[in-house]
Amino acid sequence: MPDNKTIPLIDVRIIPPAERHPRIFGELTMLHPGAAMHVVSDHDPQPLHYQIEARFPGVFHWQYLAQGPDVWRIEIRRYESSGCGCGGGCH
């Protein structure tokens, strides 16, 4: 498993709201199988989780590393195998 220093981090607290999800989705599409990224937010990003599952069903694992009340930290990891082999591009 990679060292936390090598895991990309997006702190959405410092990103304008309209740019947050596009930035996260851009980073997700660059993750290789088995790789992860962290997202830090000032609120529970559960709606983002639903959007990821709708757009990339079965491709990413979502794990809370911290759950408020002031900071939420999420690890999003691309599964080693993502089914059809398209990397989520066909979903």
How would you sum up this structure, described in words?
With 91 residues, the protein is α+β, with helices and mostly antiparallel strands. The protein has a single domain, classed as Translation Initiation Factor IF3, CATH 3.30.110.40. The protein is built from 2 helices and 4 strands; from the N terminus they run E-H-E-H-E-E. It has a 4-stranded mixed beta sheet, covered by helices on one side. The N and C termini lie far apart (27 Å). 14% of the residues are buried.
Distance between the termini: 27 Å
Radius of gyration: 13 Å
Q: Tell me the strand percentage band.
A: 25-35%
Looking at CATH, the homologous superfamily is TusA-like domain
Residue ranges: pLDDT <50 for 5 or more in a row? none
Major sheet strand order: 1-2-4-3
The largest sheet, given as strand count, sense and whether it forms a barrel, is:
4 strands, mixed
Q: Into how many domains do the coordinates divide?
A: 1
Mean pLDDT score: 89
The name of the CATH architecture is 2-Layer Sandwich
The general outline is globular
Number of strands: 4
Task: Give the tags.
91 residues, alpha+beta, Translation Initiation Factor IF3, 4 strands, 26% helix, 26% strand
Describe the SSE topology.
Layout: E1 9-11, H1 17-30, E2 36-41, H2 46-55, E3 60-67, E4 72-78
Parallel strand pairs: 1-2
Antiparallel strand pairs: 2-4, 3-4
Organism: Brucella endophytica
Pfam families: DUF2249
Keywords: Aminotransferase, Transferase
Give a quick rundown of the structure.
With 91 residues, the chain is of the alpha+beta class. 26% of the residues lie in helices and 26% in strands.
